[in-house]
Each structure stands twice: as structure tokens, then as C-alpha cells.
UniProtKB/TrEMBL annotation:
GO terms for molecular function: DNA binding; DNA-binding transcription factor activity. Keywords: DNA-binding, Transcription, Transcription regulation. InterPro entries: HTH-type_LysR_regulators (IPR050950), LysR_HTH_N (IPR000847), LysR_subst-bd (IPR005119), WH-like_DNA-bd_sf (IPR036388), WH_DNA-bd_sf (IPR036390). The keyword Transcription applies. Belongs to the LysR transcriptional regulatory family. Pfam families: HTH_1 (PF00126), LysR_substrate (PF03466). This is Transcriptional regulator. Residues 3-59 form the HTH lysR-type domain. It comes from the Bacteria.
Amino acid sequence: MSIKLQQLKHFTLVVEEGGFRAASNRANRSQAALSTSIKELERILEQPLFETGNKSKLTPFGEICFPKISQFLDVYDRLNNDLRADAAGQQGRVRIASVPSVAAKLIPSVLGAFSEKYPNVEVSLIDDNAAGVEARLLSGEVDLALGNYSQLEEAIHFTPLISDPIGVVCLKDNPIANNPEGIEWQTLLEQPFIRNGTCTLLNSTPARILSEQALYSVENITSLFSILELGIGITTLPKLAFPTNETRLIWIPLIDPPLERQIGIFQLTGRTISPQAQQFYELCVQYLNYQKE
């Protein structure tokens, strides 16, 4: 016969409470049931745990067993608590990759709410471009990824969250800045164009010619803004990628063609994510959909 966990718990209760009566009250069991449980344990071990004439006094064998059983039950209780906390998403780790504009503008608020609700969960956030966040998800480096929709592989499931309009970025003293309500792409043909990573969003439109004829190509967003501030060209960017505290540059919506990117959250198709990642996923959906409304 195998030793039952309940038998070990009953044994330690009797020792800790100094007798069967107090132990039965604490266990909410009858003395007879507790006594039967202990006798079954003694039968399995083939040794008495309590002296025959004094049921509250341990035998020498019982003295050996008590610290070992207590240590095992402590480990069991910690394991039980840890597993339940993990299952509830209360501890553990979640790894996220995000395009920089989403990481800077949207993730902080979600992360703030997440850390308040799940203070013991470790969060790892990695910035990368759109292709990079997808690659990190596919490789298993991260649990979730946030970015803009593209022709994704079948292995990736995309949940759309918000729409992010595309616009033109230039110096405020540029003549085209006199059209703050919107601008047509043809108006930009005579402007030196700076291609960046998000310009692939123009590819399916007539405005792709702007990117194709670009004089400059800059991938790093910090470098891009430094060059734009020199006044040597203009570019197109999603609105989320434009700094809210920018003083020298202006973002103007592109109205012909009107373009936007779909921002959402990626996870691997058919793969169960961890409870911690699931909690972060649900919070992103809840918060960003609220922002959209």
C-alpha cells in the first residue's frame, strides 16, 4: 500500500496538537477517523508511531519520522501554492516583443496595469522592427508580439486592436505644412524623400513611388528624426511613431491615398501560451480596445 498525503497530515496534526482530541478538532474529523488514519500509516510502515500506553508520545521511530514528514509537507505546501499561483498567472515570467512605437506609446499603460494586478510576474520587453518581432515569436524567444499586420505566416495568429493612420512628417516651416488637415501624395513628389522601415506600407498604393525614388534611407528612428530636423527631406510615418513632444516637426495625415496600419497582438497558432502571457494578452485586448472606443 502507498502512503497517503492525508495520513501524513493527520500524523503531524496529532504531534503538533499534543493528542488526538485537539488534532481531530483542528482537522474537523472524528477521533475515530483520525485514529484509523494513523493506524493505516503504521501498518504501511510496519512500525508504531505513538506509544501504546500514551497516544500523545512518539515512539523512537515516530521521533525519526516527524521532522522528515514535516519537511516533506512544507515542500508540498510551497509547491501547491506555487503551482496555483502559476496557474492563476500570479507569478512566473512573460516575454514580449513589440515594435518601438507601440512599446513607447501603448505598452507602458498596459504594463502599469499589469504590474499592479500581478506584482510578482517578471516581464521582459524587447523592441524590434515588424519583421523582427515576428521572427522572435516564431523562434520561441517571446510569448507574445505586438506590431502591425502584414502577410503573416500561417503559424502566427493576429488579433487586431487599433488602427494607426499614416501621415507625412516634415519641418513646421515646410510649405506643405500649410495643409494640417491632410495632404495628397502627389504634393510630395517635389520634396526630397527619406525612406524608413514603415514605408513598406506605401507599397500597395500609387504613393510607393515616393519610397522608390527616395534620396535617403534611414532605419533607426532616432537617426531619422535627427535628419528630418535638418530639413533635407520629408518622410511618412504612422501617427504612433511620431513623438507627442516634438516641437520642430509636424505630422500631417495622408488623405490620398488614406492609409492606416492595423496594430495588434500576435501569438503562435495552435500553441497554448502560459497563464502569465494569457493575462497580459487579455489586458492588452481590454485596454487597447477601450482606447479605440
